[in-house]
């Protein structure tokens, strides 16, 4: 490996998703570009794309990908840990409480009750982003900060 890991997420609303990942999860937009059909097609990515590279503060990159040739269908099946394929993106945080507080206002929805779950000396929380992609938040505190989160 020569660089930190990158993951691509196909989106329907590029501006909404860029705001979500930058304002709520602390990513930083590094660049955006148009990938012409002449490149995207032979690479197996379909037609023309707009791509925004978001740098994750701890390293790595989330690429938001907007196809220009055809609309992206809405997610039709709810998330299930038992389904095959990519399941979720994990973000490790020093303190998830401020992020959890901002998620609902940003269009995300919790996927568990309680929202913050103590697990193996850590706290975890699963959310669906505004387009239904699953995001896991993890912090190492492993104890309840006093705030009770629930649906």
How would you summarize what this structure contains?
By secondary structure, this protein is α+β, with helices and mostly antiparallel strands. Helices cover 15% and strands 33% of the residues. The chain starts with 5 loop residues before the first strand and ends in a 12-residue tail after the last strand.
How would you portray this structure in words?
The structure is a single chain. With 151 residues, the chain is an alpha+beta fold. It is 15% helix and 33% strand. It starts with 5 loop residues before the first strand and ends in a 12-residue tail after the last strand. The relative contact order is 0.19.
SSE arrangement:
Elements: E1 6-10, H1 14-24, E2 28-35, H2 37-40, E3 49-55, E4 61-67, E5 89-93, H3 97-103, E6 109-110, E7 117-119, E8 122-128, E9 134-139
Parallel strand pairs: 1-4, 5-9
Antiparallel strand pairs: 2-3, 3-4, 6-8, 7-8, 8-9
List descriptors.
151 residues, alpha+beta, four-stranded mixed sheet, 3 helices, globular, disordered C terminus
- What would you call the structural class? alpha+beta
The largest sheet, given as strand count, sense and whether it forms a barrel, is: 5 strands, mixed
Order of helices and strands: EHEHEEEHEEEE
| Fraction in beta strands | 25-35%
- Count of helix runs: 3
Average pLDDT works out at 85
Give the end-to-end Cα distance, rounded to a whole number of Å.
41 Å
Regions with pLDDT < 50 over 5+ consecutive residues?
146-151
Quaternary structure: single chain
* Total DSSP E strands: 9
Radius of gyration: 16 Å
Question: Considering DSSP H and I runs of 4 or more, what fraction of the residues is helical?
Answer: 10-25%
Shape: globular
């Amino acid at each position: 490996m020569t660089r930190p890991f990158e993951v691509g997420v196909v989106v329907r609303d590029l501006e909404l998703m860029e705001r979500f990942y930058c304002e709520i999860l602390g990513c930083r937009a590094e660049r955006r570009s148009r990938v012409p059909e002449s490149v995207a097609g032979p690479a197996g990515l379909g037609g023309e794309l707009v791509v925004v590279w978001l740098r994750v503060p701890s390293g790595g990159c989330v690429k938001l990908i907007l196809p220009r040739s055809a609309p992206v269908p809405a997610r039709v099946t709810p998330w299930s840990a038992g389904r095959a394929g990519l399941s979720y993106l994990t973000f490790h945080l020093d303190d998830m409480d401020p992020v959890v507080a901002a998620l609902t206002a940003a269009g995300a929805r919790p996927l568990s009750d309680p929202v913050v779950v103590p697990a193996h000396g850590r706290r975890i929380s699963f959310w669906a982003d505004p387009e239904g992609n699953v995001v896991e938040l993890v912090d190492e505190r492993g104890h309840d900060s006093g705030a009770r989160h629930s649906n």
